[in-house]
Structures are given as C-alpha cells and as structure tokens.
Design brief:
The chain is α/β, with parallel strands linked by helices. The chain contains 13 helices and five strands.
C-alpha cells in the first residue's frame, strides 16, 4: 500500500476524469488530495492548496490542452520541480507540451490506457494488477470529448449538453446556499457573544453599585462596565463582515445564473475566477 501523499493537478474542465481517477486510487489505498474534496467550507482556497502542495510527495499531473494553458497547473508543476519532488504525468489528451514538460516521461492514457495505468500504479506504489479497474475512465474521456465537440459546433439542438457539463464546473447552488447559511449561523453566534458581554457588564455594574458600593467609586464602576463592553467590538465587526458576505453571495448566485445562460462563451479563466470569488466570500 502506498504511503506517499499524492496531489492531483488538473484543469477544471478535466474535473470529471480527475475526480473519478482520485476515487479509484483511494479505493486502492492511496492517500490522494484533490481540491474538490480537500478544501473545506470556510477554508481559504489559496492557503489550502499551498499546504497540500507542501505536504504532498507526488504530483499526479493530468495533461490536456486546457491543463497546459492553465496558470495554476503550471505553477503547481513548477513548485514540485523546484523542490525536487516526484511528478507522475498522465496524458489524457493529445496536445502540444511546454518545453519543460517535454522532458518528463509521461503515461499515455490516450493510446494505451491499460499499459499507462499499470505504469502509473507502479509509480505510485500501488498494485498494477488492478489497472483493469481504470478502463472505464477511457469511456469517460471519450464522452467528454464528444460533449466538447458538440459544444464547439454551436448546434442549438445540443444546447442542454454543454450546459450540464459547464454548470458542473461552477460552484453549485446548494454550496452557495450552504455558505450563506454558515454566515447566518456565525452572525447569530456573535450576537449571543455580544449579549453575554452586555449582561456581564450590567451584572458587574449592579454588584459594584450595591454590594461593593462603599469601597468602589461610582465612576470607576461605570468606566469598568464600559470597558468590558469593548470586548464586543470584534464580534460586532465579524457580524458586519458576514452580513456583507451574505449580500455578495446573493449577488454571486445571480451571477451564476447569468453565466449559465452564456455557457458556450465561458473560458477556463472565467470558470476559475468565479469559483475563486466564491471561496473569497466564504472566508472572513
């Protein structure tokens, strides 16, 4: 069983293949990190990726035309090269490679998928005899290519297919609603903290003016009570920030609906920008 931590580097348009491959590797006992599963709600997107890159020993690189054009993928490859860590490249689409990538020996899943997966499993320290379990991924690739071909034709009768495909790449509506609900819970929690602080200051003031009235100056008691209320500044600021994020998330939901209507015009960078914008609104 493999003990190395594997970081999956891929283009968002290859996500269906990447997630299926990740799940199958996990079934074989591999420790695999992929952004789709590795970044929790409310976690800073960039920090999570940086931490995963630092702790992972192997970069599983899924090579395609969109991956080659992705700045994020290129950065991840550069980081692993600079640190001298292992890179296991899989060619999932024939495309022109950057100069630095041409020097890497890759497994060609497009021409000899079974042989390619045996090589990949060997490289990852997994049982290569299980390579036949990955053959259905070839059909997934073929279906994705067929969907892309239909999308580029501009055939209106096939409009629903690209909508399903690209919509799946964007943050889903349930995830957006979940993020808004998370902020609402945070607001309620902070109001409870503010109420608790206010109650404590009132109780303290009453005690000082009754039980300890002979030994405590009335102005000192009032000032002390007001100073305790200063503890409410941070939770109040948190409430303000969360309220702003809820408004932005609502706008983001409307923006998602508009993007769905112009799916054929969405680029890789626009999809990544939308998803990153969502992550920024989730974090404080």
């Amino acid at each position: 069983m493999a003990t190395d931590s594997i970081f999956v580097s891929y283009s968002s348009k290859d996500r269906p293949f990447a997630t299926s491959l990740t799940n199958k590797l996990k079934e074989l006992g591999a420790e695999v990190w992929i952004d789709q599963d590795g970044i929790g709600l409310g976690t800073n997107w960039d920090n999570s990726i940086e931490d995963a890159l630092e702790t992972s020993n192997i970069l599983l690189l899924l090579i395609s035309s969109t991956a080659v054009a992705s700045g994020n993928v290129q950065d991840e490859v550069s980081i692993f090269k600079e640190e001298g860590k292992r890179i296991v490249p899989i060619m999932i689409e024939q495309c022109e490679l950057p100069m630095r990538w041409k020097r890497m020996q890759y497994a060609d899943f497009t021409s000899t998928p079974e042989k390619a997966m045996r090589r990949v499993l060997d490289a990852l320290g997994l049982n290569s005899e299980e390579s036949d379990k990955f053959m259905d991924l070839q059909e997934k690739l073929k279906r994705n290519k067929a969907a892309e071909a239909q999308e580029t034709t501009g055939d209106e009768q096939q409009g629903d297919q690209p909508e399903v495909k690209v919509a799946a790449l964007l943050i889903s509506e349930p995830e957006i609603d979940m993020a808004a609900e998370m902020h609402k819970k945070g607001i309620r929690k902070n109001w409870m903290i503010i109420g608790f602080i206010a109650a404590c200051s009132v109780i303290l003031l009453v005690l000082m003016l009754t039980v300890f009235k002979e030994s405590v100056n009335i102005w000192m008691a009032i000032i002390g009570s007001l100073l305790i209320n200063l503890l409410s500044i941070k939770p109040y600021g948190n409430i303000t920030k969360r309220s702003q994020n809820i408004e932005l998330i609502d706008l983001l939901k409307l923006k998602r609906d508009r993007l769905i209507r112009i799916l054929n015009k969405l680029s890789e960078d626009e999809i990544d920008k939308f998803n990153t914008e969502f992550k920024n609104y989730v974090t404080l």
